[in-house]
Structure formats: structure tokens, C-alpha cells
């Protein structure tokens, strides 16, 4: 379905992150928001762990509200 000539036409049409497009005026590829995809290493980093709040370990269970007029 995708031929080598079709892939060859993509760079002049859309450009790359370093070079703008030759056929489209003022078009650059959008930059990815996250360049590093290693999320486990990112989430375990000291900079992020300092900002996050501590986990709530205490479990609060709801008590059943009884009607004092009908319940002894």
C-alpha cells in the first residue's frame, strides 16, 4: 500500500522537525510534548515526588445513620 516513492514525497510536503516544509508555506511538524517516553522513570524521579502529595492510607468507612425515633 505504501510505496517508496510515497514515503519520499512526505519530507518535501510536510518537512521534518529540523527543516520546514518546501511545498506548504510556514508549516513545521508539531513538537512532541513528552520527548522521554520512560514514564516509570519520570514518575519515580525526585523532582516529581517532592511535588506530589502523600497518599491517603487511612480508610474512612461511612456509618449507617439510624433513625432515633424508630430504632431502640
From TrEMBL:
GO cellular component: ribonucleoprotein complex; ribosome
Domain Large ribosomal subunit protein uL4 C-terminal: 25-71
Record has Transmembrane helix as a keyword: no
UniProt protein name: Large ribosomal subunit protein uL4 C-terminal domain-containing protein
GO molecular function: structural constituent of ribosome
Family as reported in the entry's similarity comment: Belongs to the universal ribosomal protein uL4 family.
Superkingdom assignment: Bacteria
Biological process terms in GO annotation: translation
UniProt entry keywords in alphabetical sequence: Ribonucleoprotein, Ribosomal protein
Coiled-coil stretches: none
UniProt organism field: Nocardioides humilatus
InterPro entries in UniProt: Ribos_uL4_C_dom, Ribosomal_uL4_dom_sf, Ribosomal_uL4_euk/arch
